[in-house]
Design a protein that fits this description.
By secondary structure, the chain is an alpha+beta fold. It has 27 helices and twelve strands. The N and C termini lie far apart (71 Å).
Length: 558
């Protein structure tokens, strides 16, 4: 492809990938997992509730009797700013597009400057990385890594440019400290130590690390105070327990991360095309050149080390140690997996460079086309419209149309029946409480990564009969509990938080404690399940509401 046409080609492919967001609006499909079912609504409750400028410790009353603002949102993050300026839906779309564009730009600059990769292949790998299904929850924590690495390499090599420092300064405001920043700073510290040992100048990198640490700390000082001291707010995370896995299952964990990345929050799309290309290329070069390339070997060793580390965290001796130390129990230590997307793409870039002219043009174009097809297959709307009717893959936990997921018209009817939401709190069964919260209802349940431990104990009384009779559900709530929701036996091996009307059985026994519901101020229950003998739980059925995805029965708490 002539160089003059390459920018237009990239723009067209990028626009085509994101066309559903721009063309279909709220009828486009989105990943609900850790997004529509939680993160998106946290910011909506704070902003639309009038708490944007309230102090960090202000209780947001719409969820679980009142959750501190600093738990739900990061007011120093770009997503908070987007929600202040734009509607919830617009802010989400801008965030998705911003992450993708940042990944594209950062990878392009990194590959062209430091890998000396030819323009066409650099553009292809940049598009591939940009089309990683980044969760909006992580803002630019993963998508911004190539751009940050580009800036840090420039500083390390003493290249002038104010933009390098601008990238370093901005990054803490477009990424998450607890889920990414801690691990990025840890890797940066190791890098500095290696550079110092090799007697290279580290002053610029030290300053960059210090700047990022200070900005991260200032932005999340309330959260750090809570996690480390816990004097005014005892978190439910203090009771988190980690469960060990047998050694053979730990090997399965290693294989899963090596092949797919973290399939829940950081899915990597290297499996079908890039992985075999890199491994075959590595073996080919090893045989032909009779030596291993140092950079490619280090990249692959880093990938293996991360996957082994994640697997090791599940090994019984390590789990026992973590359970003895509160901070290690509370903190998710496995998130070095956030670097896997970057590392696989850098490994692919190095493989292309090493193969060079020995690689036929037709094979190169085949790899490019195949990888882009994989990326498009995992785009939620393109998957639902064109891929799923032919064959099913599992790109995400739940894919739904935005408008139909939140079902605003149906919830408008529900609000009319229950009256003033603040005086008539609800509990949700079989669907995420975030959907009710999005529509202005006050819920006694919710999906929150950090909330008061006493509330967890009070809520447990509601579902004690279900938890005590099911070790899996009991462990899910007691040993983790970030989803403080109505758990019940579904007889399918896994608990499905999205019981849409096509999945709900005619009726199901759900055992609740009516007195415990009333004690938390619950006046109504909205259930995607038709409850067998609701009166045994102190409930009285009132009405049934339906939408595209949901069939909800409204019960009154006696």
């Amino acid at each position: 492809m002539p160089g003059r046409f390459l920018p237009a080609f990239v723009i067209v492919i990028f626009a085509l990938y994101h066309l559903p967001l721009l063309w279909l609006g709220q009828q486009a499909y989105y990943n609900a997992f850790d997004s529509l079912d939680s993160f998106v609504v946290w910011y909506r409750m704070v902003i639309d509730g009038g708490f944007a400028d309230a102090p960090p410790a202000t209780l947001i009353p719409q969820i679980m009797g009142g959750i501190p603002k600093f738990v739900l949102v990061n007011t120093s993050n770009i997503y908070f700013f987007l929600n202040r300026v734009f509607s919830t839906f617009q802010a989400l779309n801008i965030q998705i597009l911003l992450a993708s564009f940042t990944g594209l730009l950062g990878m392009w600059l990194l590959l062209r400057q430091y890998f000396r990769l030819e323009a066409l292949v650099a553009a292809f790998l940049s598009l591939s990385f940009a089309f990683t299904p980044f969760l909006p929850t992580w803002t630019l924590s993963i998508a911004g890594q190539p751009l940050l690495l580009f800036a840090l390499l420039n500083l390390r090599n003493r290249k002038a440019g104010w933009w390098n420092w601008a990238i370093v300064v901005v990054f803490p405001f477009v990424s998450n400290f607890q889920s990414a920043g801690v691990f990025i700073l840890a890797v940066l510290a190791v890098w500095i130590l290696v550079e110092a040992r090799n007697r290279r100048p580290v002053r610029q990198l030290l300053i960059a690390a210090a700047v990022m640490l200070i900005l991260y700390t200032l932005g999340r000082i309330n959260l750090l105070d809570n996690l480390l001291a816990g004097q005014d707010f005892v978190s439910h995370r203090t009771e988190i327990q980690r469960y060990p896995l047998p050694p053979l299952v730990c090997l399965v964990v290693f294989a899963r991360f090596f092949l797919f990345g973290n399939i829940d929050v950081a899915l990597s799309l290297h499996t079908a095309v890039l992985l075999p290309f890199i491994l075959v290329g590595y073996v080919f070069l090893l045989v032909k050149d009779r030596r291993a390339d140092k950079m490619l070997t280090l990249l692959l060793l880093a990938i293996v080390a991360i996957c082994a580390y994640v697997a090791l965290l599940n090994w019984e001796p390590v789990v026992d140690l973590r359970n003895k130390i509160r901070l290690l129990r509370m903190f998710s230590m496995d998130r070095f997996h956030i670097f896997l997307q970057l590392l696989w793409h850098l490994a692919a870039a190095r493989t292309f460079v090493l193969l060079g002219s020995r690689m036929r043009k037709g094979l190169r174009l085949t790899i490019i086309g195949a990888q882009l097809l994989v990326c498009f297959a995992y785009q939620p709307t393109w998957y639902k419209l064109f891929v799923e009717p032919v064959f099913r893959i599992k790109p995400y936990q739940h894919l739904y149309r935005y408008a139909d997921y939140y079902a605003e018209s149906m919830f408008s009817d529900i609000r009319k029946q229950i009256g003033e939401p603040s005086e008539n709190k609800v509990a949700c069964i079989g669907f995420p409480p975030a959907i009710a919260q999005y529509n202005g209802l006050y819920t006694i349940d919710g999906y929150v990564p950090n909330y008061p431990l006493p509330y967890k104990k009070a809520f447990r009384k509601i579902i004690a009969a279900e938890l005590d009779g099911n070790p899996t559900l009991g462990g899910f709530f007691d040993a983790w509990g970030s989803q403080c929701i109505v758990l019940y036996e579904q007889n399918n091996g896994n608990f499905n938080t999205h019981v849409t009307k096509d999945l709900a059985p005619p009726q199901r026994p759900v055992r609740l404690d009516g007195a415990a519901l009333a004690a938390l101020g619950c006046k109504y229950v909205l259930s995607a399940e038709t409850i067998t003998t609701p009166e045994a739980s102190g409930l009285r059925p009132l009405s049934v509401f339906t939408s595209r995805y949901w069939k909800l029965t409204l019960y009154q708490v006696n």
